[in-house]
Amino acid sequence: MRSTEQLLVDRARLMGPNVSTFYDDPLHLVRGEGVWLWDADGRKYLDCYNNVPHVGHCNPRVVEAICRQASTLNTHTRYLHEGILSYIERLTATTDASLDTAILTCTGSEANDIALRMAEAVTGKRGIIATDATYHGNTALVSQLGKSNIPTVGFGLGQFFRFVDAPDSYRHPDPDGTTFAAHVAQQIDGLEKDGTGFAALVVCPYFLNEGFPDLPDGWLKPVAEVVRRTGGLLICDEVQSGFGRTGTHMWAHEKMGVVPDVMVLGKPMANGHPVGGVVANHDIVAAFRTGYRYFNTFGGNPVSCAAAMAVLEEIDDKGLVANAQTVGAYARERMQKLATQHEVIGDIRGSGLIFGAEMVTDRTTKAPASDFTDRVINALRHRGVILSKLGRHKNTLKIRPPMPFSKDNADLLFDTLDEVLADTSLHP
Ligand code: PMP
């Protein structure tokens, strides 16, 4: 087996400069099971970060479903197959009745790309609005939404995109969502006046990439009203927030009090097997069909559908949404206690199994402790706990473990975090 140093050299040589790694000392993982990962030296890590293995690394039900279907048949969707229909039936049984039709893809990026093109097909307009601290994917169209990394190339698509300040409950509270709605209304007005026209607002309903600000349930209602009144579509990107992650609902848009026109899915959908999707009303999907001929060779193939079905079954059978709520509430209690002991914790937040803390150098000025947060993440990695950071200032601990995460796992996480935060050599 290649050494870590050799892997890094060979990655750069064979994969080019566009592949980043986590950590100062990148991890070479070789095995996973449940919430645990092992590296090439046999060292065990508690995974508090990866949401793709939603029902646990190498979940036996998902592995069995993939093996069974892969050894029976795998083709594309131009042949008839029971699996894709059973899956879409089961998926749409979890959503509002208006979200009754789905297109399956291989990635969240493709799914968002379709969602934006659906908005153009339905409205006849092209103006898209998103927050200024989000990420929705990597196609030429969708990559325009990542304002922190706006492509300098991209076929001139940037002209169709407008941004509003991401919600920030810690520094700029907007408890009823009316300020956010007013900012979106302003951008819509601008798009209509300059002739671009308003097609859609796209948001992650729990604003995960933005640092999951603490927003009360129902917070998206005012902005949804603005979007509807002005004739655009509301696209909810549930790639990170969906499948029960928040512990209170299967879909975060339900928590935020809205029904989107288009729901976008990805990452956890098939536990690591590449599956994404767009769920919308039949009429919207029909309008998209008129505008575009769409075919996806791998999207919705029988093996992908078997894996995705096993994820839904596992969520139900193991009560994983309720587990997210119970363990998430416990995690918040433990974080609250840590915040009384460590001044550097400025704010704690989250719901279910997405939670974290914002690190500051000073609680009064709320100055972000971004470099310190980076040192904390690296120190945790060396103590066998994997998590990450995000948000506008990259100073929010992002804790988003596989859904079978237990209270014992949370204890190990917070005991280790306590030790790391007490290590004065890491402080500024
Ligand atoms: N939407 C959101 C909210 C995401 O976080 C991501 C990936 N980080 C995507 C879409 C893109 O998904 P994919 O990488 O599967 O294309």
From TrEMBL:
The keyword Lyase applies. Keywords: Lyase, Pyridoxal phosphate. Its EC number is 4.1.1.64. It comes from the Bacteria. InterPro entries: Aminotrans_3, Aminotrans_3_PPA_site, PyrdxlP-dep_Trfase, PyrdxlP-dep_Trfase_major, PyrdxlP-dep_Trfase_small. Its cofactor is pyridoxal 5'-phosphate. CDD domains: OAT_like. Pfam families: Aminotran_3. This is 2,2-dialkylglycine decarboxylase. Belongs to the class-III pyridoxal-phosphate-dependent aminotransferase family. GO terms for molecular function: 2,2-dialkylglycine decarboxylase (pyruvate) activity; pyridoxal phosphate binding; transaminase activity. It comes from Pseudooctadecabacter jejudonensis.
